[in-house]
Amino acid sequence: MKCLITELVHPSGVDILKQHYDVTLAYGKSLDEVKAMVKDYEILIVRSDTPVQKDMIDAGVKLKAIGMAGIGLNHIDTKYAEEKGIKVFNVKDGSIDSVAELALTLMLTVMRKVNPANNAVKQGKWDKMGFTGNLLTEKTVGILAVGRIGSRVAQLCQGFGCNVIGYDPYLPQEVADKIGVKLMSLDEVLQTADILSIHMPLTPETKHMIGKKQLDMMKEGSFLFNLGRG
């Protein structure tokens, strides 16, 4: 079987695939070039920059499997692929820790004013009192979508002594209790959180979920971090 990889995958992963398939690396190819190539392949592996919509799927007349080298599938028409008998795979646990740690990095960097302070020092200034930041400790962190990544963010924030609340209509109450997240409505989370961390993928349900109305509900001086896919 032949496998087409359109975006950078770690060489060790490519080596594993080469043990089983005839692999072609199409890094840097345009979308039109990929569409022209995919007709000859049974397996297509992409990352987030290669949309796999109906036209791409129709072009892949031999496709048996589409692999996403990451978590998000919002750029892949999974329903249409499955209707055509094509299996779609992703790496569900691939970036849990990296995204969760990035969330904490962004919180600390923004709240402690690391970037402006760093820029000032580079300009030869030392304004110790001008960059007084905010502690993460004892803040109320609101998490939108308490899935694999959101749960890990909750755990890391709890390590800083934060109170963690969350909005996730799909999370069972017993799971929320186990990980120490108090479930609330979306409006309640917006009104209560000192820090809001978004981890929802872009879907028709979540598109424009946060707009002016929701931002107006948030506390004066609160922080919002969007780590949701899309």
Low-confidence stretches: none
Hey, roughly how much beta strand do the residues contain?
15-25%
Mean pLDDT: 94
Instruction: Give me the number of helical elements.
Output: 10
Secondary-structure element order, as H and E? EHEHEHEHEHHEHEHEHEHE
Shape: globular
Classify the secondary structure makeup into a structural class.
alpha/beta
- Any idea what the radius of gyration is? 22 Å
Strand order of the largest sheet: 2-1-3-4-5
How much helix is in the residues? 25-40%
Q: How many strand segments?
A: 10
Give the termini separation.
32 Å
Q: What can be said about the biggest beta sheet?
A: 5 strands, parallel
Please specify the SSE layout and strand pairing.
Blueprint: E1 2-5, H1 11-18, E2 22-25, H2 31-37, E3 43-46, H3 54-59, E4 65-68, H4 78-83, E5 87-90, H5 96-111, H6 114-122, E6 140-144, H7 148-159, E7 163-167, H8 173-179, E8 182-183, H9 186-192, E9 195-198, H10 212-217, E10 223-226
Parallel strand pairs: 1-2, 1-3, 3-4, 4-5, 6-7, 6-9, 7-8, 9-10
Helix pairs in contact: 5-7
Overview of the structural elements:
This protein is α/β, with parallel strands linked by helices. The protein has helices at residues 11-18, 31-37, 54-59, 78-83, 96-111, 114-122, 148-159, 173-179, 186-192, 212-217, and strands spanning 2-5, 22-25, 43-46, 65-68, 87-90, 140-144, 163-167, 182-183, 195-198, 223-226. It contains 10 helices and 10 strands. The chain starts with a strand and ends with a strand. The mean pLDDT is 94.
